[in-house]
Every structure is written in C-alpha cells, then in structure tokens.
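hey team, just a heads up i'm posting the complex here instead of the shared drive bc the drive is being weird again. everything in one block, sequence lines first with there labels, then the predicted structure for the whole assembly after. its two chains so it's a bit long, scroll down
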Amino acid sequence: MAGIVRAAGYVPYLKMDRKVIAAAWERSALPGCRSVANHDEDSLTMAAEAAQACLKEEDRSRLSGIFFASTTAPYLEKQAAALLATALDLDRGILTVDYAHSLRSSLSALRLALDAVSAGTADTILVAAADTRQGYPRSDPEQQFGDGAAAVLVGGSNEVLEYMGGYGLNDYITDVWRNPGDRYVRAWEGRFITSVGYMALMKEVISSLLTKLGLKPSEVDRAVVAAPDQRSLKDLLKVTGMDKEEAAADSLLNEVGFTGAAHPLLMLTEALEKARPGQTLLVAGYGDGAEALLFRVAANPASEAPKHSVGEQITARGALNSYARFLSYKESVEPLPGEPFRILPSASATWRERDSLLRCRGSRCRECGEVAFPIQRVCNNCRSLDRFETVRLSGLQGKVFSFSQDNLAGRSDDPVVVQTVVEMENSARFYGLMTDCRPADVRVGMPVRLTLRRFHELGDFHNYFWKCRPVR
Amino acid sequence: MGSIKDKVAIIGMGCSKFGERWDAGLSDLAIEAAYEAYQDAGIGPESIEACWFSTVYAPVGGIGASVAADALKLRNIPLIRNENWCASGHVALIEACVAVASGLYDVVMALGVEKLKDTGYPGLGAGRGMSPVLEARRTAPGSFALIAKRYFETYGLSDEQGKELIGRIAVKNHENGRLTPKAHFHNKVSLDKVIAAPIVSWPLGLFDCCGNSDGAACAIVTRSDLAKSFRPDPIYLKGVGISMDSMLPHLRPGFDWLRFDSLINSSRQAYDMAGIKNPRQELDLAEVHDCFTITELAIYENFGFSEPGNAREDVESGFFTRHGGLPVNIDGGLKCFGHPIGASGLRMTYEVYKQLQQKVDNPERQIKNPRRGLSHTFGGPPQISAVAVFGNETG
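-- predicted structure starts here --
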C-alpha cells in the first residue's frame, strides 16, 4: 500500500489586503488578502520551508527521492530538486526530479511518487511544490494569485491517507501560459478557459476516476479541488455532484490566493488538518489536462500534523500595506540596491562551502565539544585540527543574543537590515540577518529559527544562505 | 616577549588636512603628509631606508605599496604594504619601529593614506569579510551597534539612558574637534541634537558615527641613540601591543560583546612594556578608536581606564574631557578628525606626538606638561587591535 504519511504547508509571512492593490489602481477589490513572498523568498526557498516542516529526523534515512514541482523554478537550466535536497541536507544518493511547466505538475509528481512506492521501487518520496506566479499589474490575477508552498511525504507505511487510485488526462489548450522571458501570466478569454478548459477537463477527470474506482460522487466526503476562483470551484462541485460536502468554498483563495502548482497540495494539507478517519478524499488539479487522486483517511491525521498548521500560519502574518513595495518585491520595479557589496561571489567557492552555506552544517569539536557555525577546521576553543563532526543547525531554534537595526545596508524597498547574533539551542552562534520581522519588535531573547533565503544575484547566479526569523 | 622600550624615537611627523578631499587623490594626500614629516625631521627623501605603507580601500586589490614609490619617488628601498583593517596605520608604525630596533635600518618611514571619497558611496560599504553571503549587508555601524545592545542589556540601561550615555561621548569629541584645524568637522553639538539625529544603525545615530574622510599621516622613526642628532625633542616609543583575533569572534559561544580579548591583550602588552601599572593614573592623554561612540565606551573598560560597568560614571563626571583626569581624543577623535582607515593610527599618534612636544597647532587644545600618551586603533569585526605608548624622555 502507498499513501501520504504527512503533509505540511508554507504560507509566507507577508500578506496583502487586496484592497491595497485595488486602491492603487482605482478599481474594485476582490475579497480577502493574498500572500506575498518576501523579497528574499522564491519558490525554492518556500518549498524548503514546507519540506523541512514535513520531514522528521527519522524520515531522512528512508527517503528515496525528492520531487519539486513549480512553474516558477529559480533556474531555466539547473535542477531545483537537487538544490532542495542539499538545503534539506539529504543523502546524495536519492532521486531528485523537477516537475515543471504546468499547474498540475505537483499532482503528476504526487501520482508518480505514489506509483513508485506502490511498485516498491521507492521507500518514501517527498513531493514539494511552490509557486510565485505574477498577474499583470491591475489585472484580476494580480489580486487572485498568492505565493505559497506545500510538501507531502509519500510512503508505504504509517500513512494517514491511503491511496485508492488516480487518473490523468492531457490536453493541449492555449488558455494560460507564459512565453520564455515573460514575467506575467498570459491568458485567453475567460469564458474559453472556463468552459472548454477547466470545467470540461476537471469534470471528465473526476468522473473517469470515480468510474474507474466504482464510486459515486456522493461517496466522496471531501473534495479537495484546486480552482483559480470560487465561482469555478462552486460550478465544478455542482456539475460533478460533489457539492453537498462540508466545505464547498476554498478558504485559501480568500486568505492566501491561488498558489499555482502548490495549490492542490496546500489544499490537501489544510484538508488533512480537518479530516476524520474513514473519510474519502478526492484531490484534483488542472493544467494542460487534469489530474485526480482518491484517498481514504486511514489514521487520525492530527497525530502526524506538522507543528504549525496552515491555519496558524495564516493567522500569524505581517501586513504589507504598500503596493509600491509589492511591485518592487515582485521585481516589476527596480529598487535602489543599497550599499554596494564589495565581495563578489564565486561559483567554485560557493560550491566548496556548500556544507555550511546550503546544508547549514556547523562543526562540533570531538575533543572539547565546542560548536561553531560555519564549519571550523581548527577548533575555536582548543585548536584541534580536523577533529570535528558536523552538526545540522537548520532545524534548531535559537534566541537573539544581540542585534542591530541598520539603516545603511538595506535595499530602498526594505531599508532596515536587522543584524543578529543568535544563540542556537546547541550553543552554536549564528551571526546573520533576520527576515520576516518588524524591526521595531526585535528583542534580546526572542525565539527564532533558521530559514533558507535568496540573498542576491551577484555573480549572475542565485546566492542562497540562511537567515533567522521569529518563530511564528 | 621582549621589549623595545626607549629603543626607537619618532623624529618627524606629518598629517594632511582630513575631510572630503575632492581636490586630492591618494598621491596628493601621501605627499601632503610625507613632506610635512620630512620638514619636521629636517631630512629629505634620500634619508629614508625603508617604508611601511598602510592603506585598506586602495582603488584596486593589487597596488602593493607602490603609492610610496609613485608619489614620493621612494625607490629601490623596501616598500611594504600593511592592511589590518582600522589598525593598519598602527601596525605599519609598529613594524617600522621594530625594523629600526632590529638595527637593520636607521631611518624608516611609516605612511598611512586612505582615499575613501573616490568610492562613490558614504560609509565603508557592505561586506566585511570573505564570504558574499555570510557578510551580506553587514556594515560597520551594523556590526558595532551589536556592542551597544549588549552593553545596555547587561547594565540595565533603557534605550534612552543608553543613547544619552554614548551621546555624551559624541558631545565631548565634537567639543575637541572644534579646536583642531586639520579635523574634518569643527562643529559643536548639543546632547539633544546628538540624541535626536537620524539613526544609522540603532542605537547609533549620525553623531555616534565617525567621519568618513580622506587623509594621510606619516611618521619618521630612528634609533633612540641617533634621535637627538635630528631634533632636540624626539618622542620615544615606550610600549607596543598588537592583538589580532578572528574576523568572527562572534561565532564563539560565550562571546559577550563587552569583553574584547584583543583590546585587553594589546593594551596589557603595551602597558607592561612601558612599565605602566595604572593607566587611568599614569597616562596623560589617550587617542583611542572611537569609530562609534559605543566603541570608545567599550575601550574605556577594556583598557582599564574605567572598571567594567563604571564607564557611565566617568563619562558623566567628565573624566575623559580635555580638562578631566584622562583626556581622551583631544583632537576630536575619529568622530571629528575623520577616519581614513589606513591613516588613522598614524593621525592619532600625530596628536600624541605634538601634545608630548607641546607643539599642538592650536594652543587652546594643548594639555599641560604631558609625559605619557597612548594611541590605539581597533578594527574589523571588531577584534583587531593595536596600541602604542609614547613618552617625551627616556627612562
């Protein structure tokens, strides 16, 4: 048997009331707010957050692969899953695959993971999905889209969701797309997309799956169906006969926005937080065809729930109230970059330092026990040479020991840089930047954890490293 | 460790006008300082047998000490560049003294020059180490402000009390800078103005930060037994201390941001060599590294000028003012004189030298009959410190 062992979502810290966007364009607002990735976040870093929340220490040794699904991967040519595996400090022998170019890529990845586990060719596979799609300024999608990520761990034992079967369709339709170099999502007429695209394909895939499994629509307890808007969702649930189930609306669309390839998995994560044993759960998503999967809730999902539920993350956010900042974070306008940075990155040096910079490993001296980050070959305390073991810091919490709020070093759209010295729970000192915070709220003793972030693009590549952020 | 007490003397010094020297490049600044030093020593370039040159932000990475050769035409002698962050000028001077003490050379120049105002930005820029991500968006005020937060936290000062404490140091140094013709800034400031100034990196406001300036300073040193053949009032080197620590002391568990080993070690070495038991009483003046007001405060306590936690009392009683028990930064310090990195150690020594000779360019700033003076720079993360103690007679 194969199924889902655990699921975790990531909702970025920043939210923006849709009224702020609407007001900037002197037009009407859609209800609720959308999530906004911070300027140091991208699909890869958000996926890393979700994946880290999804993985327990004991899962690491059993992991056979990691799949990354997104339409906004950081590179056109360069595998994000390999970077994700490195940032999660996973074994180099695992299978890493990127799934791209379609909004249903996450569900394709999930089906393949379930198939591999069912076939016995994989023990467990982590499927992570994230997106940061952009709508044209003033367009509806600008308000509708949101940034987010989710990760699910697929395995053959201890599943909370048993996999009953899946069905997929492919279809070539120019409904929504981006050409190479496009920043914003293009779309054909809405009526065309909805009628012959979304509604037709989703209806077909759902009914085909139910027929294949010999189930009636009324036997589906929870429909976890990704839709770009509430109206399409409502209509679809009606035509498929699944409209009598408990939550007919997608609250994520109101609170987070449509998170692209991540959306079906983020919905699934949220649904799992409320699911009860014995329920039947149908997951479906659309994009160049459609994908549908059916699960039965096997165990009490609460037992495997991650520390911070999607709902809790939605509650604990900070508001971005400036549309100008939003445009700048989204790179629609260019910020003044801040103080020139004198140290140019080197691809080879970054590669050499990857254990510290990406795997977030420090060193613990075997002679005296002193812990340091980044890795020190000569012990800071007893000066033993190469007598260390490495220790992973990324999952640990810490407390702010000292900090400063620097008005000199920031970008013009985020001018205050919070430098922090953090005392980690294993006594290591982390000296770095704080993100996702209100600078005025930073205090000595404040609990923080580490988060992978994108620092800058010097050297013409993405420079990732860790920052600390307040525990949400 | 051995001693070079009284073995070396300074026989000539020069210091350029500091400030935004749009009119002068590295070479012009070097010439301004060196030719004043030649005149002061009564010698010419032909007498220089070696030169230790210090600069940090040279326009490109690989200039060596060629400025000394290109600008001053000091050719066919050893020209050695030193870069040790803010302590560069001091290290160049101390190395020059060590070279003379070794007997290898009789007359050696130490020259520090820094041209910051050609970089195109105010301040020193971001990035203070070797890694483009570890050091990202790390600036000098952002790093030194970490000391302030710990000091306030440890001694139970509210943000307002802390701001006032460090603000008084800025007021003092501005009061001194007013009397220093070669300094970058000459304005007097009130405590209210200091506290109300725009924040650069909390709690450091504009007046808590030193001047970002161009400048150069130069010393010519010789063996003590030759010194009086050049001038009647040479200034003798009494003690030196250099203590370099990791660029990242912050990584050590237990590092408390109040006690800096490099400050403690470098000052102790210098005191021991100079025979100073109680610096608070025995020093007549000190030029210390006030890159930020909080740095000067930390130095009072690490150098034994004040007991740990007691600097506040001394600041409030005016102990470190020009007329106090131990005048600190009589020439305005880095705060007002300015901080062209590679030149600063030599500029501070210039003030000590002139004070000990009682030849300060503005008599209002001259203190009465000083015998012992200390100059000091502290740089990097911060954890790189160099100290020199001078006297106006041997023994």
